[in-house]
Amino acid sequence: MTTTTITTVRVFDGAAMLEGSFDVTFTEQGIRAVTATTEEPIGSDTIIDGTGKTLLPGLIDTHVHFDSYADLGEFTRWGLTTVLDMGTHPKSLVDRMRDQTGLSDVRSSGSPASGPGSNQTTKGSFALSTVVSGPDDAPRFVADRVAEESDYIKIIIEDPARVGDVALGGDTIAAIVQAAHTVGLQAIAHASSTAAFHLGIDAGVDILTHVPLNGPITSEMAASMAVGNIRAIPTLIMMKGTASAVGLPDSGDGPGYHNASASVTAMAAAGLMIAVGTDANNAPFVPFRPALGESMHDELQLLVDAGLSPTEALRSATSTAAALFGLDDRGSVREGSRADLLLVTGDPTADITATRNIDHVWTAGIPAS
């Protein structure tokens, strides 16, 4: 077991930048100590000078897709020590990605629930058994995910006015949510239109991922989310890239990225829990593919542009993201936490772009592979 100490470093502990400079000592078993810097000798195997640098919890991307070890390597080298997969198959691939030493830690929904003829089954090659035929079929779908050891349930919500019978009905969505809750799992819903958001809110999903391009989330909708304790993963980088790819403007009265940004502003004003997710992927059938790992830093900037402070954006990628998914052992720099750590040059609470100035990454106390 190797003991590492970073000396004379600023510490963003997952909630705020601590005052002063600190010495942080950790091993593969976790963070041993976070103490004010002194001139006392430090008995560690590895000592790293943190002068002019900031130590943060490893970043958590709450919406990714992957298909290889190389993908995990990209996530890790950009400072992402935990990634939450939102739809990857088969189970054997997900299993191979889990518990890889020196690489991002993985959680997964497995296959998402979708309607008949959905892109997930026609273009994404997900099994036809992932189609949910109606409310009575919801327990079967959730039981299949439980058997595959999925960590949460993903639901594809579409606008029925746009895709017709491909869309899951509101009663079916609600039944999937209920079946997930019965077995103690959260229900996370893909919702990229205002109509889909309304369906998700009415069904009582736990998390809505994406934000609409066709119109903004209003203060009334955000208030309804707050009442229902519904949290958000906006994936602004995905929405911005998609808007650009299909030729939508960044401003005006019609559809466009400005609606996505305004939605985040409204949700933040309502006090909703917002976590960072990018929808980074390699899928061939989507209009935009955010870069694996690097897009996390784009997302942080877009959240700041939408009105979050740099500190709030950093929380969304660390402590908030961990809390959202019940990952109580990470998302913070404190004694006893898992030693998922990111050391950067500069102060990202003053300039969010400093998260790109990566000096070191550790996953569970091990230098990134």
Could you give a short description of this structure?
The chain is an alpha/beta fold and 369 residues long.
Overall description:
- This protein is α/β, with parallel strands linked by helices and 369 residues long.
- It has two domains: 4-56 and 331-367, Urease, subunit C, domain 1 (Roll), CATH 2.30.40.10; 59-324, TIM Barrel.
- The chain is 31% helix and 20% strand.
- It has 13 helices and 15 strands.
- It has helices at residues 69-77, 91-97, 119-122, 138-147, 160-163, 170-182, 194-203, 219-227, 236-245, 257-269, 295-305, 310-316, 319-324, and strands at residues 4-11, 22-27, 30-36, 46-49, 53-57, 59-64, 80-85, 105-108, 153-157, 187-191, 207-209, 231-233, 341-345, 358-363, 366-367.
- Strands 1, 2, 3, 4, 5, 13, 14 and 15 form an eight-stranded mixed β-sheet that branches.
- α1 links the parallel β6 (59-64) and β7 (80-85).
- The radius of gyration is 21 Å and the shape is globular.
- The two termini are 17 Å apart.
Reported CATH architecture of the largest domain: Alpha-Beta Barrel
Shape: globular
Q: How many structural domains?
A: 2
- CATH fourth-tier homologous superfamily of the largest domain: Metal-dependent hydrolases
Q: How do the SSEs run, as a string of H and E?
A: EEEEEEHEHEHHEHHEHEHEHHHHHEEE
Q: Count every beta strand, where a strand is a DSSP E run of 2 or more residues.
A: 15
Q: Regarding CATH, which class of the largest domain?
A: Alpha Beta
Please state the structural category. alpha/beta
Layout of strands and helices, then pairs:
Blueprint lengths: L3 E8 L10 E6 L2 E7 L9 E4 L3 E5 L1 E6 L4 H9 L2 E6 L5 H7 L7 E4 L10 H4 L15 H10 L5 E5 L2 H4 L6 H13 L4 E5 L2 H10 L3 E3 L9 H9 L3 E3 L2 H10 L11 H13 L25 H11 L4 H7 L2 H6 L16 E5 L12 E6 L2 E2 L2
Parallel strand pairs: 1-4, 1-5, 6-7, 7-8, 9-10, 10-11, 11-12
Antiparallel strand pairs: 1-2, 2-3, 5-13, 13-14, 14-15
Helix pairs in contact: 4-6, 6-7, 11-12
